[in-house]
Amino acid sequence: MIKQNIRYIILFLVSVLVQTLIFDRIYITSYFSVYVYFLFILLLPVNANKYTVMALAFLLGLSVDIFNSTQGLHAAATVLLAYLRPFALRFFSPRDDYEPNKDLSVRNYGLIWFLKYAGVLIFTHHLFLFYLELFSFSFFFFTLLRVVLSSIISLFFVSLGHFLFVRE
Amino acid sequence: MRNLLNFIVKYLYTIVFLLFEILCFILIFTANNYHKVSFLNSSNTLTASITEQWNGVTEYLRLKHINDSIVADNERLRNQLERYRKDNIPAIEESGFEYVSARVISANVNSIKNFLTINRGKNHKLDKEMGVISSNGIVGIVYDCSDKYSSIMPIINPDIKISVKLKKNDYFGSLSWDGENNNIAKLDEIPSYVKLDLGDEIITSGHSSIFPEGIPVGTVSSFTEDKTSGFYKITVNLHTDYNNIRYVYVIINNNYSEQMNIKNIITEKND
């Protein structure tokens, strides 16, 4: 149990640092930005207390905000992601339901399941984040394009990154 | 009463969610009013020292590039100094501007609300609302300081506007950023009767007392005439390459408080 907690604490720290020290510094074009830090929330156990998950999401988002001087922006989007997580889990539940002690991974539930589960949550997170960031619909289509492209690329990196965390 | 309790219990999850969101929105909106919660940004000592350590690692990979840019900067400054010496122009100190060099320890330039963090702070006489330039041109304005670090709001942030002018004829306008590309800004308020060419130099106007006059900003990359307003819509290619920014200079205006006092007296009289 303690071992499991330490594993998640490390994942939290690594998520924040990888996001802020690596992905936030890569600039290719303004058409997309890559976000991966919510991998921590996505991989929390199925039976984790949903209020704890939300509080952790707030802390996670706030940590990223502090590095980026964007007070509350990422926190707001990540709390939304955490709020929607139980619904997404229920909606995409596999035929023979989740096993509480198994990680929410491609290996346990299949690639298609993971892409659906992570994809929907990442898309909502990005949609909320990018429009909140501008606080206007003045670049509506440009922002929508950013949301779509960023979601695809973030999903790619999140799927890749989760293999580093999930054990045999 | 029981109904209310039932309601709360039933929707507790959503209510907690909304409370969290309200907290986040309070944070977002207090951030814009020259925030009171200043430990929550990147000039915070803990996060800044983490990014600084990390930079120590990554910097080796770019040493050659950094050296080149410093040599180029030196060369330009030497030439400038030589020109002043030839013309016997009195020392520049009289202008009241002082420069402090700083290293950029983190640059978030790939989103909309972009910020830079530098390794100089209040201990080095820095303060909010000071101008920041690089060897290529204007960078941004100091947003907040801790003792050792400061966060900079670059021009490529929609919350900032800078007063600039055309180098060739001194018509001035305001420079802002629309979020599309971090090398391109837009320039408004230049009347359409002014003759404009592609590649015209844009420099700071010196109206704001944050930047001295004549700091390079960029060049005109395209313009269209807006018939209804009588102004140009101009896009400007910025000189500063935010994807590759390492060293900057913070401008301390020693006459700032005096200039502000005069301004306040005038506005008070007008009121």
Word description of this protein:
- The complex is a heterodimer of chains A (168) and B (271).
- In chain A, α4 packs antiparallel against α6 (111-134).
- Chain A has helices at 2-22, 39-43, 50-68, 73-91, 106-109, 111-134, 140-165.
- Chain A has one domain (2-165).
- With 168 residues, chain A is mainly α.
- The model of chain A has no long low-confidence stretch (mean pLDDT 87).
- By secondary structure, chain B is α+β, with helices and mostly antiparallel strands.
- Chain B folds into two domains: 2-33; 41-254, Beta Barrel (Thrombin, subunit H), CATH 2.40.10.340.
- Chain B is 31% helix and 28% strand.
- Chain B has five helices and twelve strands.
- Chain B has helices at residues 2-10, 12-32, 45-59, 63-87, 256-270; strands at residues 97-108, 115-118, 131-133, 138-145, 150-154, 162-166, 172-176, 184-188, 201-204, 216-226, 231-238, 247-253.
- In chain B, β10 (216-226) and β11 form a beta hairpin.
- The longest helix of chain B is centred in the first third of the chain and has 25 residues, at 63-87.
- Chain B is globular and about 85 Å long.
- The A-B interface holds A 17, 20-21, 24-30, 33, 50-51, 54-55, 58, 61-62, 65-73, 75-76, 79-80, 83, 86, 130, 132-134, 139, 142 and B 13-14, 16-17, 20-21, 23-28, 30-31, 35, 37, 40-44, 47, 50-51, 54, 106-113, 115, 117, 143-144, 151, 158, 178-182, 242-243.
